[in-house]
């Protein structure tokens, strides 16, 4: 019996040895990053967005601010003017570079404001069930409104400026964020750890901050990217209609200048390059959001 026990004990590893032999498991963030790295479209989209942000930050180092008049009027793309010139002889490349700053600033600022409003409404609707019906009606009504005509009306009444564009775009962008956050929040709030936090006496604010918001954080990250692209499109549309800031350049303002001068159809370079910049940003943000969504989903990962 002694030999048998000794043999069994010697052949059975201890709990500490078993735990030490198992490799440490990767966190969800590490798994998401590993899956995202395997997506070439996601990496390329992230590189494009980083490049646009660097161009916006270093616009003054890349090109002089386009102002005044030039000698070469409506000159096509050349070594001297990569993107050609407009009807006043101003360099279109410089306009696109400086327009990147305003377009991205307006897009990010409007996106952040819309995300804040949408997250507050969505989380409140998911967590406080008695407020879900009222907040749901408000979101549904907001989504049913004709967005573009109302944006034009509000921007025209408030006056053209960058701050006006940010507020107007955010006010008509938050309902989509609220709906997505509410859907995700409805899956997080019934979780056992949320119920346990209530049982131990956690306050509503503490539970939302510690448990609900981390649960909807992936959806918020995707919403930031998509809302930014929509905000850039909205800014370009409003600026093209003459409702942007007349004292600053943006991609929509370049198109507005080309339309107002009559060179919209005759000088193709005045519209092609700012339109390509808008298209590049929108496609990059969309692909980045899709790649991140696939990377964080265990089924597709």
Q: How do the strands and helices of this protein lay out in sequence?
A:
Blueprint: H1 2-11, H2 15-21, H3 28-37, H4 40-57, H5 59-62, H6 92-127, H7 129-144, H8 147-158, H9 162-171, H10 174-188, H11 192-199, H12 204-240, H13 251-261, H14 269-296
Description:
The chain has 14 helices and no strands. It is mainly α and 301 residues long. It has a single domain (33-67, 77-296), classed as MetI-like fold, CATH 1.10.3720. Helix 4 (40-57) packs across helix 14. The two termini are 52 Å apart. Residues 1-25 have low confidence and may be disordered.
Query: What's the alpha carbon Rg, rounded to whole Å?
Result: 26 Å
CATH topology-level fold name: MetI-like fold
Number of strands: 0
Instruction: Tell me which CATH architecture applies here.
Output: Orthogonal Bundle
Question: In angstroms, what separates the terminal alpha carbons?
Answer: 52 Å
Mean pLDDT: 83
- Estimate what percentage of residues fall within beta strands: under 5%
The string of secondary-structure elements, in order, is HHHHHHHHHHHHHH
Question: What would you give as the CATH superfamily?
Answer: MetI-like
User: What's the story with the biggest beta sheet?
Assistant: none
Overall outline: elongated
The CATH class is identified as Mainly Alpha
Structural class: mainly alpha
Helix content: over 70%
Total domain units: 1
Count of runs of 4 or more consecutive helical residues: 14
Report low-confidence residues grouped into runs of 5 or more: 1-25
Keywords: Cell membrane, Membrane, Transmembrane, Transmembrane helix, Transport
Family: Belongs to the binding-protein-dependent transport system permease family.
Membrane topology: Multi-pass membrane protein
Protein name: ABC transporter permease
